[in-house]
Amino acid sequence: MAQGVADSLLAEGLVRIASEIDGAFDALLPVPEDARARLVEAMRYAAIGGGKRLRPLLLTSVAELYGVDRGAAVRAAVAIEAIHVYSLIHDDLPCMDDDALRHGKPTVHIAFDEATAVLAGDSLHVFAFEVLADPATCADPFTRIELVQALGHASGAQGMAGGQMMDLVAETSEFDLQTVTRLQQLKTGALLGAAVEMGAILGRVSPEGRTHLRGYARDIGLAFQIADDLIDYEGDAATAGKAVGKDAGAGKETFVSLLGPERAREQARLLVDQAISYLAHYGKEADLLRAVARYIIERDH
Amino acid sequence: MAQGVADSLLAEGLVRIASEIDGAFDALLPVPEDARARLVEAMRYAAIGGGKRLRPLLLTSVAELYGVDRGAAVRAAVAIEAIHVYSLIHDDLPCMDDDALRHGKPTVHIAFDEATAVLAGDSLHVFAFEVLADPATCADPFTRIELVQALGHASGAQGMAGGQMMDLVAETSEFDLQTVTRLQQLKTGALLGAAVEMGAILGRVSPEGRTHLRGYARDIGLAFQIADDLIDYEGDAATAGKAVGKDAGAGKETFVSLLGPERAREQARLLVDQAISYLAHYGKEADLLRAVARYIIERDH
């Protein structure tokens, strides 16, 4: 695949999914005409119009490999993105990372207030499971319950939230490379893995048949986090749309502090090549997933 | 039913469910041997050994009317209690109600720290849906997805979290009786209603057949909140196990401020009588539900 073709495939994919996810959040989160309006406005503020929509792009791209109905895939994608957005709202709170900027605009607790930010995060959290459980996502209850299980497992104490806890502990501990890898597999990798898994669930791919896709997801998850560490190390806040240089400031070990920037960059490249090799038995139809893998380490935010 | 019999039925029911819920949380939340240990310890601290377990008692009592397997009912009860506990952890945060005491012991953000409290709440939140989605709860995926839907709907922006938002707004607004009623129906009533609904879902009661149970749940939900307002108005912190006198201090309108304590008490009594009347076509097997309804307004914490 020529680089120009891959670039335009990716660019189209990113634009398409961004518009679909914004549209779905807009339709699924109408503002009520009572005192709850402020809550739903905060949910919409956080959920609509920001972020790369990487998890939705992964989920819908995998679903497309198996001919899944686009509407179903987009609903599942909205659910996983709602989990991602809720985790960012809570992560940005003063008692957590205390960030004032997210996707280039004030964080929810700055734009609204802390209590509203806590509740907006909580509400997007449960919203994700409501969307998945709704028959509108998919008529088959077994598929829906599998989606709930996959997303629940990836986002709880043994997944994303567990990784966030390890991240808090990292500020006062000296983690080695193995522990940092484990931390990142939980904090970021679990949800990226769930995106791929949920696409496969919708495609009714057998658990055995998901092995290659799991390998792909695991490798891009780690590459993603190394790229994030590099952006934090050398990026600028205006491009990143969020504060940078925070890890070193917090005395946190990262892939960059443990490997150095050159070896970290090399490691990310190897992981992306390896991820793409897992897609070897797919044809052109997996070109978007290949382009996403490369994008993971080429993005600057 | 003689008062003494009802009392001992209720006392036995409360002791039994408390032990079952504690046992289930203990078994389902093993502490991992890595940096996530602190997170799971905070979840266990909040979830085990506290609270009246009213929602689990309601859910299992309804399930028992329809001969549901006790293990399945207890798992669903653990899920709804996890939602209740997560909401208390977040509600107690400094940016929300800023409470230092809950069930007679320091709140999670005091015993641990704020960031851990946010994450422990988030983790118990998703834990609830993981438990429901697990085949161990019930082999039939349709029943499991219905449980997820009922709990999701009751706890999100159109249920509990929406009520919490209205509660925040109430501190700076003058709500009338109708708005306070609506607030409480969302904040407390939705989850109490879900407890009854989930018991009925496990019992495969047809949606039409659930009308009486819904009436029962709606009335005890409102009675519960009036009783809570009365405890806040006239109780003492040692008995309540939490701070009291907070509503008046915050200038919040409650059933007591709007109706006066005497009319509020009378209203709660009427609601309990009405709730019990919805159980008229059940025999002795609903005696525990009748006793729970009376307990709602007779408790002092």
From TrEMBL, chains A, B:
Gene Ontology molecular functions: metal ion binding; prenyltransferase activity
Lineage, top ranks: Bacteria, Pseudomonadati, Pseudomonadota, Alphaproteobacteria, Sphingomonadales
Gene3D superfamilies listed in its UniProt record: Farnesyl Diphosphate Synthase
Keywords assigned by UniProt, alphabetized: Isoprene biosynthesis, Magnesium, Metal-binding, Transferase
InterPro entries referenced in this protein's UniProt entry, alphabetically: Isoprenoid_synthase_dom_sf, Polyprenyl_synt, Polyprenyl_synt_CS, Prenyl_diphosphate_synthase
Gene Ontology terms: cellular component: cytoplasm
Identification of the protein by name: Farnesyl-diphosphate synthase
CC cofactor: Mg(2+)
CDD domains: Trans_IPPS_HT
Domain of life: Bacteria
Any one GO BP annotation for this protein: terpenoid biosynthetic process
Family the UniProt entry places it in: Belongs to the FPP/GGPP synthase family.
